[in-house]
Design a protein that fits this description.
Radius of gyration: 21 Å
Shape: elongated
Order of helices and strands: HH
Number of helices: 2
Helix content: over 70%
Distance between the termini: 43 Å
Number of strands: 0
Largest sheet: none
Strand content: under 5%
Amino acid sequence: MGQLVTQGIVWLQRQGRMGGRGTGGEDGQSMVEYSVVVALIAIVCMGAIQALGGGIGQVFQNILNHIQSVAR
């Protein structure tokens, strides 16, 4: 996963340095593409949080129980 992120960053840097894919008039298209990518990342994050939500909640509950038992 880290390599994929690194490749994405390199690609974005090249796009900025080379002026994007086209000339002048395609700035709006690039912004739409970036917006779609951000939306997809947000959807994946929401799905992961939804899937892991119960497990994460249980971890925090265990930590809270442990802290309360130590404090008594």
